[in-house]
Structure formats: structure tokens, C-alpha cells
Amino acid sequence: QVQLVESGGGVVQPGGSLRLSCVASGISITLYRMAWYRQAPGKQRESVALITSNGFTNYRDSVKGRFTISRAANTVYLQMDSLKPEDTAVYFCNTLYGNTNYWGQGTQVTVSS
């Protein structure tokens, strides 16, 4: 029932920008916490940013001041500015609905010169 579909990944040079989108169906995202995670090859998946139903946002220290999570309609966004090579990862959209975590398919972000 709940589906998350991500897009917006790509290849960008250091210092560049990307905006990731996560389109949700089967859920009103304004009622639930939405989050972005990322996973680099050979590394554990890590939380990047979240936004609550009240609009509260929280960010991983390493992305503070560079990334912005937001939502509109049924889409959650992650605006990524001043990208660094260490931001390279597959980025996943996530929500906890009921007692189940739902994940998008992931979108690849590569930051390289």
C-alpha cells in the first residue's frame, strides 16, 4: 500500500548541487516522519535528515548547513548543496508507518571531479 519512489540522483562535481525527490503513495506524508538515509559501498546505512509531522527537522552533523529536507504535496525533497565526495552514496527515502519501515528503491548520488 505504501510506496516511496525516489528520483533526482546523478553525477555532480564537488561543490555542486542536486535535489532528490521522494513521491509517496498510500500515505499522507504530512502525518508521518519522513527521513533520508544513505549507504555508501561497503558501509552501513546512515541517517541523513528527517522531518516530522510538525515540521521539525534534524540533520546529520556532516550535512548541516548544506542539506535541506522539505515536503510539499506528497513529495519529500532533499536539497543538497556544496556536495562533497564523501556524500557519494545511494540515498533512500524512509518512513515508519504503523509498525513497519518503508523504503524507496534508492537513487545514486556520485560526487566526483
Describe this structure as you would to a colleague.
With 113 residues, this protein is mostly beta strands. The protein contains no helices and eleven strands. The protein has strands at 3-7, 10-12, 18-25, 34-39, 46-51, 57-59, 67-72, 75-80, 89-97, 100-103, 107-111. The strands form two sheets. Strands 2, 4, 5, 6, 9, 10 and 11 form a seven-stranded mixed beta sheet that branches. A hairpin with a 6-residue loop joins strand 4 (34-39) and strand 5. It is globular. It starts with a strand and ends with a strand. The model has no long low-confidence stretch (mean pLDDT 95).
Question: Which terms summarize this structure?
Answer:
seven-stranded mixed beta sheet, mainly beta, 113 residues, four-stranded antiparallel beta sheet
Write the layout of secondary structure elements.
Elements: E1 3-7, E2 10-12, E3 18-25, E4 34-39, E5 46-51, E6 57-59, E7 67-72, E8 75-80, E9 89-97, E10 100-103, E11 107-111
**Percentage of residues assigned to helices:** under 10%
Whole-number average pLDDT? 95
User: Which range does the strand content fall in?
Assistant: over 45%
**Series of secondary-structure elements, N-terminal to C-terminal:** EEEEEEEEEEE
Number of helices, where a helix is a run of at least 4 consecutive DSSP H or I residues: 0
Largest sheet composition = 7 strands, mixed
* Helix-and-strand structural type: mainly beta
Rg, Å, rounded: 13 Å
| Count of DSSP strands | 11
- Gap between N and C termini, in Å? 40 Å
Query: Low-confidence runs (pLDDT<50, min 5 residues)?
Result: none
Shape: globular
